[in-house]
Design a protein that fits this description.
It is built from twelve helices and five strands. It is α/β, with parallel strands linked by helices and 307 residues long. The protein has two domains: 173 residues, Rossmann fold (3-Layer(aba) Sandwich); 98 residues, no CATH class. It has a five-stranded parallel β-sheet with strand order 2-3-4-1-5, sandwiched between helices. Helix 5 links the parallel strand 3 and strand 4. Helix 3 packs parallel to helix 4, helix 4 runs parallel beside helix 5 and helix 9 packs across helix 10. It comes from Candidatus Entotheonella gemina.
Amino acid sequence: MTEAIPNPFTNRGVIADPDDFFGRQEELNEIFTRLRNMQSSSIVGDRRIGKSSLLYHLAQIGTQRLRDPHYRFVYLDLQDAHYHTAVGFLQTVLQKLDINAETIQTENTLNRNLIAFSDALETLENTGQYIVLCLDEFENTFKHREQFTEDFFDHMRAQLNIRKLAFVTATQHPLQRLSLEGKLTSPFYTLFTVVELGEFAEADAYKFLVNQNRKAHFTDGEFEFIFNYLQLHPLKLQILCDWVVKNRQRRLPERDLAAEITKEFGNFFVGTFSPRQFLRLKRTVSLSQIKRLLEAVKAGRDLLSDS
């Protein structure tokens, strides 16, 4: 039986293992700087750029990173139907904080439920705890405006304003833009610091390769292909490396391999380039540069962004 090829590049969803999370240190530093004063942040970026992974990672390492056990992080993916009602949202947050959520009831008025929610948070605040809600796909609240009304957002803004809790949200567009489009008329967004999420810095892409090479064991030729067609978008880089590993068995020529890579790009991104365009992206990396990069990657050293 042929031994399975080690392939650490198959994940297309949220990065759940903290050891597999790379880069984004500037963004994390900004968010944690704000959280030390219980100030909220809004992560903004294109689809598939890594917002969910950043938010999930934040919830995983937050208490340790802040070096304060009084911080408690709750991660919610608001695409989940459990959070499509105000009652479901409020109940789940309290349950995840190990607080009795029976005071939140469907038959209650929204105002009564919001007061009960704030009273519950106050009990935690009185014991010195700091509550941070990491809210993924935050735009989904605007799809259910009969549930998440202006009163809901005004009340949450009041809680954020007195730092009873903090939000870190993830959206494709800034909350201010959503407000200008009429999807949010509450001044809720004015308490958030915008953290824009873009592609990897080149050095972070190399650090990603450093770590994953411990499992993938790229050959010099595979590294050369990766460096020549390096993608700084995290998911595109993952797909590129995935196909390089899979090609160990398939042994496709460069043109056919490019076709497979761009085909999978098209499964996730609208208007991606063709195989011919992909081949034209080949960088002019000299043999000496490739050798230096290979040596640095194999040694696990940090790489300069101008490599």
